[in-house]
Request: fold
Amino acid sequence: MPINFNTGIYAAGALRALDSASARLARSYERLSSGMRINRASDDAGGLAVASSLNVENRVLNRANRNISDGISSLQQLDSTYGAASSLLQRMGELATQSANGSLSLSQRSSLNLEYQQLDAEIRRLAKQTTFNGIQLADGKQSARAATALSSTSPSSILGVSSDGRVITYIASSRIEQYDTTTGTTTALTGTLSGSITGKAVAGGNIVVFTSTSDLTGQNSSNKNQIFMIDRANGTTRQLTSNTNSGLSYAIGAVSDEGNSILYSTYASLTMSYYVYQSQTSTSTLITATPAPGTVVWNFSSDGAYLAGMADLTGDGQSEVYRYRVGQPASNFQKLTDFLGSGIGAPVDTEVAVGNNGTIYFFSPGNINGLNSTGSNQLFSLDTSGTYRKLGTASTNTTPYQLRVVPDGSAVVFLSAANYGSNSSGVTQLFRYEFSDNSINQKTNYTSNTLGSATGGAISTDGNSIVYSSSGLKQIDLSPERYDLSIDLGIRGSNGSITALLDAINGSLRGLGATRIGYQASAKGAIDLVNRNLDQLGVARGNLGAYLSRLEAAQSLIANRAEEGEAARSRITDADLAQETANALRESILRQTSSAMLAQANGSSQIALQLLIGATG
Reply:
C-alpha cells in the first residue's frame, strides 16, 4: 500500500460514506418529525402523483358529505313543517266534524269556524316561513303547465270547480254532473232537467244551487221555475222557492263559498228584483229592484260577509259598483260610484270581486281620480272608506276575466292578455296582484292562447285550477310545483348529484282558506277537503322520507369511500415510524462509524509526515 499525503483517497472514501449516512439519517429524521414518507417529489414521484389524486378525491368526498348533511338538515326542517301541518289539519278535521253535528247553534259553529280559520291561516304561514339558508322549501314554484283533457264531455255550462280543483260541476245534456279529477269518474247529480238552467257550485264541491222547472222534490208539480239546492254531503235535494207564477223566472247570480248565501234574481212584469237568500235560516232579503237592468255581475267575499255587484240598475247606460253587507237590511245595499256623473267612462262589466274586509276590485278604462290617463283597462280597488287605488299598470287595452280575491286575502288573481311589464306577445296569462309588494306578477308564460279558451269556464277559489270546455272538458293546474333541491356529490356526469323533489305545502294542500265550517252543510264539505289534504300530505311526507333515507344511505357510502381513500393515501404517504426509527438508528451508527473512519483516514497523512521527519532527521 503506497503512503502519500498529496491525495487523501482514504479520507475521501470515508467522507463519502459519512455524507451518505448523514443524508439518509437526515431523511429518516425528516420522516420521523413530519410523519410523512413522501416529503418531496424525489422521495417517490409515482406515489406522490397517486397520493395527490387521492387527496383531491378525498377532499371532494368530504365536501360532498357536508353537502349531504346540509341537505338532510333542510329536509328535516321541511319534515317538521309537514308534521306541524298534519297536526293542524287533524285538528281542523275535528272542528269540521264537530261543526257538522246538527245539535250545535250558529253561534257555537261561529266559534268553531274562528279556530278553523286561524289554523288554516297558520298552515299557509308555515308554507311561507319554512326556509333553509334563505331557500323557500315549502312554497313551491309557479310554472305554466299544459291543459289536461279530462273527459270527452263538452259541458254547455260550467257551474264551478271545488277549491282544491278536484271536483268539477257542470251542465251537459240538460243534466248536472260532477267529474272527479282524481278518480276520473263522472256522477250525474240530476236527471234531465227542464227549463232555463243556471247555477253555481260552492268551494267545497258538495253544494250546487241551480234553477229548473223540473219537479225534483215533489213540491213543483206545476213545473214552475224554481231554485233548488243539492247537498251531496247529506245526499239531499231541497227546493228553496215556492213559485206559483208561470211568468216569474229565476236566475242565480252568485253563491258564497260555503253555500249559505245565494244571490238570485227574479224577473216579472218588466221588473228585475235581486234577493240574498240565507239557506241556514231559509230567509230572503230583497236588496234592490230595477225596471231596466243592464249587464250585471255579482260576487261574494270568500267568507260570505260581503256581496259586490257591477250593474246598470238605474237605466242610464252606465254600470256602477255596489256593495251589500250580508245579513243587514236592504238599506245597507249601496251604490258606491257615480261614473256617469264623473264622466270617466264605464267599468268593464265582466268582473267584480270583493275581499273579506269589504274592499271591492274591478277593471275600468276610466281615468278614476286621475289615476288612469292611458285609457287602458286597469285594475282598481275601492275600500270601505271610499278610497280608490290603481293596482299595477297595463299598457294594452284588453278585457280581463275570472277576477278572484284569494281566500287568505293576500292577492287578487285574474286572466288577461294585457301587458303588465311582461306578456308582450298578448297571449292570455294568469296574473296575480300581490298586496304585500303592490305589484302584478305574471304567473304563467304560455306562448299560445291556451288560457284564452277559459273565458267560459271557472277558476277555483284559490286561483290554482282553471277548467273550461274545448272539444271536451279540460283543466289547467296552476298550483305551485315541487321545489328541486339538488345535492352535489362532486362526481362528474349524470350521477353526480341527488335531487330531492320537495312538495309545496300550498301545492299539495289544496283549497286552503276557501272552506268554512260556520254552517252545517259547509262543515261537511270541509271534512272531505281536510281528509283529502291529509292524504296528500301523507304522500308528500312519505316522499320526503324516501329522500331522507336515500341521502342518509349516500352519506354513509361517501363516508366509507372517503375513509378508504384516506387509508390508501396514508399507506402511500405516511411514514412507518417503526421502520424509520430502525433506519435512523442504523444510519446514526453508520454515521458515527464513518466519522471514526474519516478520523483514521485523516491520520494516515501523519505517517507520511513522520517518515519525512525521520528521513531528514
Remarks:
- The radius of gyration is 41 Å.
